[in-house]
Specification:
84% of the residues lie in helices and 0% in strands. With 142 residues, it is mainly alpha-helical. The protein is globular and about 50 Å long. It starts with a helix and ends with a helix. The model has no long low-confidence stretch (mean pLDDT 82).
């Protein structure tokens, strides 16, 4: 969504952006929950109890952390009357930092090797920036 807003920043109102970010976060959370739910049931070969399902819901809600923080940044930007372009830069850099941390953490937890974690974080961040650049480049021809 940040990539789309960056291409045409004046298209959305602040409230639309907040709602969009939260809905995308909710879709990601539900997807994570359903995948983990089905995987767990397949592993144990039985239905999950409500308690086990509740644990999966709680774990899946962590996915909402980034969308909630992004929504708060947008609301704060609206409250301080920050221009879209400045706000988008803040969200973009925050998003790239989040991608780096996720990439680093996922590698470091497995291998306990800082160098491999930094490498994965850098590659993932680079791919995120390439996606933004490609979307902007494609938007110039549309």
């Amino acid at each position: 969504m940040t990539v789309d807003i960056a291409v045409q920043p004046d298209r959305l109102k602040y409230s639309d952006a907040v709602l969009g970010v939260l809905l995308i976060g909710l879709a990601m959370t539900l997807t994570r929950f359903f995948v983990r739910f089905i995987t767990k049931e397949a592993e144990i070969g039985a239905h999950l109890t409500m308690k086990e399902s509740g644990t999966l819901v709680r774990d899946s809600m962590l996915v909402m952390l980034f969308p909630c923080i992004t929504s708060l940044l947008i609301l704060l930007g609206a409250w301080t009357t920050t221009r879209w372009l400045i706000l988008l830069d803040i969200i973009l850099y925050f998003g790239v930092a989040a991608v780096f941390v996720i990439g680093f953490s996922s590698s470091y937890v497995l291998d306990r090797d800082i160098r491999l974690g930094l490498k994965r974080g850098a590659v993932w961040s680079g791919m995120a920036l390439v996606l933004v650049a490609a979307k902007k480049f494609a938007g110039e021809f549309a």
